[in-house]
Amino acid sequence: MNRDDDRDAGLDILDGVGAADRDSVRRRRRLGWFLVAGLLVALVLAGVVSNFASESPDGLDHAARVGCVFDVGGEIIAGTCMAQGETGHELAGSPFADYAFGATGLSGVIGVLATFVLGSGLIRLTLVAKS
């Protein structure tokens, strides 16, 4: 068997179909594998690598705290800064607030899956609306 035969091995059900349709099936298959690989990479990054993220304040938190003095518990004891006007948000008690749902990795995986499902649904709706 040559290389072209290897690529066509899974397409033998399309014997009566033209070359353009075979190319379309090949493209869909490649796109499917690309999407699966991308989803797997995103899940690994969200589930594993996110557990190694720094717990120290990010740039926005740091900039909001510039000008204030904090005690050991993180409370402002002196100075003037943007963080003095900080209040809790309305969803602070929700399961996903501050990655409190299980662990950071679990929250990341749930976020990736939710985004993938939402994006897939929107793409399907768009394609159905076009046809």
Describe the protein in words:
The chain is mostly helical. The protein has one domain. It is 53% helix and 5% strand. It contains four helices and two strands. A two-stranded antiparallel sheet has the order 1-2. The protein is elongated and about 75 Å long. The model has no long low-confidence stretch (mean pLDDT 78).
Feature tags:
single chain; 131 residues; mainly alpha; two-stranded antiparallel sheet; 4 helices; 53% helix
What string, H for helix and E for strand, traces the elements in order? HHHEEH
- The structural class is mainly alpha
Helix content: 40-55%
Q: What shape does the CA trace take?
A: elongated
Number of strands: 2
Radius of gyration, CA atoms, in whole angstroms = 25 Å
Q: Beta fraction of the residues?
A: 5-15%
Q: What is the averaged pLDDT score? A: 78
Task: Note the main sheet.
Answer: 2 strands, antiparallel
Protein name: PDGLE domain-containing protein
Domain PDGLE: 33-125
Subcellular location: Cell membrane
Keywords: Cell membrane, Membrane, Transmembrane, Transmembrane helix
Q: In summary, what is this structure?
A:
The chain has helices at residues 3-8, 19-47, 59-65, 104-130, and strands at residues 68-70, 76-79. It has 131 residues and is mainly α. A two-stranded antiparallel ribbon has the order 1-2.
